[in-house]
Description:
This protein has helices at 12-27, 52-68, 79-83, 85-89, 106-115, 194-198, 206-218, 244-254, 272-279, 297-302, 309-322, 341-353, 381-408, and strands at 3-8, 31-32, 42-47, 73-78, 94-99, 150-152, 165-167, 178-183, 202-203, 223-228, 259-262, 287-289, 327-334, 358-363, 413-421, 425-430, 435-439, 447-450, 460-461, 463-464.
Amino acid sequence: MPSFSIHNFGCRATQADADAIEGALVSRGYQRLAAADGLANLVVLNTCTVTAAADAQTRDAIRKIHRANPLARIVVTGCYAQRAPEELASIPGVSWVVGNSHQAEIPPIVDEEFASMPALAAQTPLPHGDFYPLSRLDSDPLSLERAPAKILSGNIFADASISLGAVTGGEGDHTRPILKIQDGCNQRCAYCVIPSVRGRSRSVPPDAVVAGVNRLAAAGAKEIVLSGINLGSYGRDLSPRAGLPDLVGRILSETPLEQLRFSSIEPMDVTQDFVDLVASSERLAPHFHMPLQSASDRVLRNMHRWYRADHYARRLELIHERLPHAAIGADVIVGFPGEDQADFQATLAFVDAQPFSYLHVFSYSARPGTAAADSTEHVAPAEIRLRARALRALAAEKAAAFRSAQAQAGGELRGLTLHRRGDDWTEALTGNYLKMRIAGHWDANQWMHARVSADPSQTLVRASL
């Protein structure tokens, strides 16, 4: 059978989508190769479009793959494919562009492509420098004419379906699988293109989620990460309505899962009840990732965010009061149109004063079709870089302070061993999102207990089972 590889870009939701595509192709008998192998007959690129840099990364990857393996069929899907299919279809080497609205059609498309080329399985990539497009191989193997890519996309808002998606990291790897239980977003933040490429918020029914958690736990998963495009909105579209706390309660009572972690949750969904729920069980990882984006109320208003800095600060207080050892992370955008020095300094001061343990810093990138893209108050690129650098430096200080505080608190933290290894260490991740280097080589997916090193540069620690 022909072989395939998948290159994935972007968030956990896209990872879950890629895993679903992979599973469907494997079930049809196609051979999965590692993306780094470079010899697959079919290459699927599952794309992100949250920034211009993400778009550029996809285009560069397509050109690199086509140069290295000109006989491969290239199928581009994901958020970039939904937003700008014609743009991607114009790149040499692309055979199909399939939007998020039609990802379920990728397996039959692949069947049809390979059925029309019975000799494909026997083909091997030509040496570098021999550029023979596969799009004409069936009729004229040496033709340099390239057939235009085919596009399959539609109205993403007409899509009311969602299937449970799990990322397990590949066959035999059950360390921290990601379970996508929600897709889409009903918000319209001024900078964000995601609602237009993911559609309206929709949720996997609770029974299906619980069954999925049980399947993963039975397969060996000790920790599962619940994810979604807007995870806190889970269940609001269901009838009867079922919120995220209700779902978590069912997972705790109806599954043997040892640890559940949450991906990003909007600050207004981090209520007193939700924080109390996380604090009530040692099976829930004390880890909150709440997008901040800015701590300037003026910028938040222009971003069409529905909270203000003091509202966000109150959420941080709720967490810190109940779970002082919890990890708290945030996304922050620098250089949003109209952001002046006072706005940025407000964000910098807010981050400095709050108990953040890490930040994801993004430089603003205008996205076609968003409200902010029409603004004329652009911040100079050089100034955006300076602000991003300053915020990342502060984030590094916050991360070091959090690690030091955990070390000074004493006691052992439990961590789950991961697959990453060095010469004399194995990486492990604690419930409150600290990465530790455990001395020695250990199998992945084992619980270890260790004391955190106060020195961020000295992360190698001794552990006990």
